[in-house]
Design goal:
mainly alpha, 10 helices, globular
């Protein structure tokens, strides 16, 4: 049996966590259970996971964590109001009136913004730590984000990039940040490369 290191697991969870949330949100947006949604979109999800594995050079054992802990394996996969509260950053008071279309739409919209930005943060972090270099890594991060955004409440990847750099980059790149200098340099390089692709390019 392959023994997966704690560092590899931790980096994987930085990606898997928001991706699980994206799937929850997408299932609710499609008026589906999580199990039904994942089954219907298995091919798209497998394509996304293949890109994630390439970004992080993750072992098959690490990738199996995504399936084992995803919440759809028991055949029910209902998404709770509590889960939606967490995914959406508590944009509504608890308990949310999810029967109100405006409340549900607000939670799904906020959730998509937050979780896709978190997913980009996780992917960039993995790419810096374990990726194939900035040029190839940037291509893979954009490909993964495009696939994830297509599953979620629709968002352009260029919009997600703008949210990510505003929400996450200052805390990493400021001179007083606890982030190691080598990691800061890597994140900055990815930020510049992603800007060139997503804002200067077709988006």
């Amino acid at each position: 049996m392959t023994v997966v290191g704690a560092e590899e697991r931790g980096l994987a969870y930085d990606v898997f966590g928001p991706l699980w949330s994206v799937l929850d949100l997408a299932a609710v947006a499609g008026s589906s259970t999580l199990t039904t949604f994942v089954t219907a979109h298995r091919a798209e999800l497998d394509g996304l996971l293949a890109v994630v594995q390439a970004i992080g050079d993750f072992s098959p054992e690490t990738m199996r964590l995504f399936e084992r802990q995803g919440g759809w394996g028991d055949g029910s996969g209902d998404v709770t109001a509590e889960s939606l509260m967490l995914h959406s950053g508590c944009i509504e008071e608890y308990p949310p009136n999810v029967d109100d279309p405006l409340v549900l739409r607000r939670m799904l919209g906020m959730g998509a913004d937050l979780q896709l930005a978190r997913l980009m943060e996780g992917l960039v972090g993995v790419a810096v730590a374990r990726g194939p270099g900035v040029e190839r890594g940037t291509t893979l991060v954009v490909a993964a984000m495009r696939r994830a955004a297509a599953l979620a409440v629709p968002r352009s990847v260029s919009d997600v990039f703008r949210m990510w750099r505003v929400a996450f980059l200052p805390g990493v790149l400021r001179p007083d940040s606890p982030t190691p200098e080598t990691a800061r340099t890597g994140v900055r390089a990815y930020a510049h490369a992603l800007e060139g692709v997503l804002l200067d390019g077709p988006g």
